[in-house]
Amino acid sequence: MPEIPDHLDYGLSILFIGFNPSLQSGETGHHYANPRNNFYRILYRAGLTPRLYEASEDQDLLRLGYGFTNIVARPTRGIDDIDRGEYAEGRKILHTKLLKYRPKVACFVGKGVYTQFSQKSKADWGFQPDPVIPEIHEFVAPSSSGLVRMPMDEIVAIYRRLAEHIAEHGS
Description:
The protein has 5 helices and 5 strands, in the order βααβαβαββα. It is of the alpha/beta class and 171 residues long. The protein has helices at 23-28, 39-46, 84-101, 111-118, 152-169; strands spanning 14-18, 66-70, 105-109, 126-127, 137-141.
């Protein structure tokens, strides 16, 4: 299954970083394409998008200043199918992308994504006090997977902090 393309550009307000694409994303070529994934619903409810987008419109979010990438590019059934070597390689590639494109905020969609990137043992929700790349604000948000047990209102409230930051500091 082919890798799905990143949506990257210079000057992004937010670069959303996932673990890796789902098999459905791999089949469709769009980020967060699994219908059970709540990503686009969360963005809309948090005030990050003016309307509810579909996964097939993921490239359109570049116009809002939002990009997409993953720590591992290969689509899998789940994160258990990713090995340590893939994470190590993905960490280097992601670091290079962040240095090249320099988004204002790197939003890690899941604590595990951030701990794999930062190699820190834990992280709290929200902005990280000691970013890996000091010039980029690192924000840890809950995974948007339908498997997450956290109530949707709590997830949306965390993403709303990101929307408030963007509104306050400009895009």
